[in-house]
Design brief:
Elements: H1 4-29, H2 38-49, H3 56-72, H4 85-102, E1 116-117, E2 122-125, E3 132-141, E4 144-152, H5 172-188, E5 193-202, E6 206-214, E7 222-227, E8 230-232, H6 245-271, H7 285-303
Helix pairs in contact: 4-6, 4-7, 6-7
């Protein structure tokens, strides 16, 4: 048999435990814990889990890689007026071949033997920052970028590619713009999360940087437009062009003529066993010159 004192101790412990359970039930059901509003909970999670991006160049090239992949994989049929990246790259390759094989500078300059196109361009957006306006291609040899070409990302520009010139430019200006944007960020927006970095072809300022960032303790995105590190009021100069259906049809027709020319050059080169994605070489010079001359003659005779 259990001693009387032991029974008393067990009984007291049971009463205390029962009291605690009853108290817990009352507190959790009659006086529930205070819950935060959804937005406040969301902000708290955002503040603790958000990865803060502070390097302008890193964000820029990450954005570029993502957008280039999207533009590469979209077919022409799905893009009524946009020029897909693979088509733009073909224009740049043909234009580089024209420069290297048909001009007096071309392969005559030994420093440019073996020049090749860098396949990933820089995307330059329109005033809105939403639509690609140009693909900015570079070409060079042994790691040096000696040639710059602009390929319109829209058929409404009415042409396919600018004329390339050797020694015309390199990517120094791009790198300087990114560096000065970083300096602006460090001085004026340190601690903010850099969300997006884009190059814009501004109607007022030329090529500028569109910098989207979220300040500390905020969920609102702020946009800044930087012209080599100088803050600009892009909103006051953004223009919208309302083209008539007749003007649009004219531009598309001009683009189609241009597109046919570049495709013909590429196809004739393939028939001749020349891959325009490979570095330019003396072995292909005479064949490519003949191809360009033949297509140019057909073009002129067709326009007469």
């Amino acid at each position: 048999m259990m001693p009387r004192e032991t029974k008393k101790t067990v009984l007291i412990s049971a009463v205390i435990l029962l009291s605690l359970l009853i108290g817990f039930f009352v507190m959790t059901n009659i006086f529930p814990a205070k819950t935060l509003p959804f937005q406040q909970v969301k902000e708290n999670i955002s503040d603790t889990e958000r990865t803060i991006h502070t390097n302008v160049s890193e964000v820029f090239f990450e954005d570029q890689e993502e957008q280039l992949a999207l533009l590469e994989n979209v077919s022409e049929q799905d893009m009524q007026y946009r020029v897909p990246l693979n088509v733009a790259r073909m224009y740049a390759e043909v234009e580089l071949a024209r420069l290297m094989y048909t001009t007096s500078r071309g392969l005559a300059g030994t420093n440019f033997t073996g020049v090749t196109l860098y396949p990933d361009p820089i995307i330059v957006y329109d005033d809105s920052g939403e639509n690609p306006k140009y693909y900015k291609f570079y070409a060079g040899v042994r790691g040096f970028k000696n040639t710059l070409q602009f390929v319109p990302a829209s058929k409404l520009m009415g042409y396919c590619c600018t004329r390339a010139e050797l020694g015309m430019s390199d990517d120094t200006s791009d790198r300087i713009m990114l560096q000065r944007a970083q300096e602006f960020y460090n001085t004026n927006a340190s601690g903010s999360d850099i969300v997006s970095v884009k190059f814009l072809a501004s109607s007022c300022w030329g090529q500028i940087i569109k910098l989207d960032l979220v300040p500390p303790q905020s969920n609102e995105t702020r946009t800044m437009y930087l012209d080599n590190g100088i803050l600009r009021d892009q909103g006051s100069c953004a223009v919208s062009v309302n083209s008539t259906s007749q003007a649009t049809a004219k531009k598309i027709a001009e683009w189609e003529t241009c597109n046919e020319y570049y495709r013909t050059i590429q196809e004739d080169a393939q028939v001749a066993g020349i891959n325009l994605t490979e570095p330019c070489s003396w072995e292909n010079r005479d064949k490519m010159r003949g191809i360009f001359e033949s297509v140019e003659m057909q073009r002129r005779s067709g326009s007469e």
